[in-house]
Amino acid sequence: MVLEAVGLAKRYPGSARDTVSQISFSIGSGETLGLLGESGSGKTTVIRSILGLLPGNGRVTGGEILFDEEPLLQKTPEDWRDLRGSRIAMIFQDSGSTLNPIRKIGRQFVNYIQTHKAV
User: What is the mean pLDDT of the chain?
Assistant: First the structure.
């Protein structure tokens, strides 16, 4: 499996219950997975959990996430910088908000490539 989540759970600080609970799936090479649900159902939370991009002091409270059989939840910030953008990434639904409209697009792409290229 390329990506696997087993029993994934996430709770935001101050919340009495998990935002997402017992999420499990696996994606093999060449496969596609779609996450569907109402607004606020936890789709973005699941993806941000996989990418180590939970806002604030958010963290996964249960389960396991494996990428190419490597556990992701124990990654350091340095490990994440090496992994994100070069081996795993997210295409946001509103990808237009990813780019800064007052900066030249070429410079933004160059910065992105320099940030994520292998050293």
Answer: 86
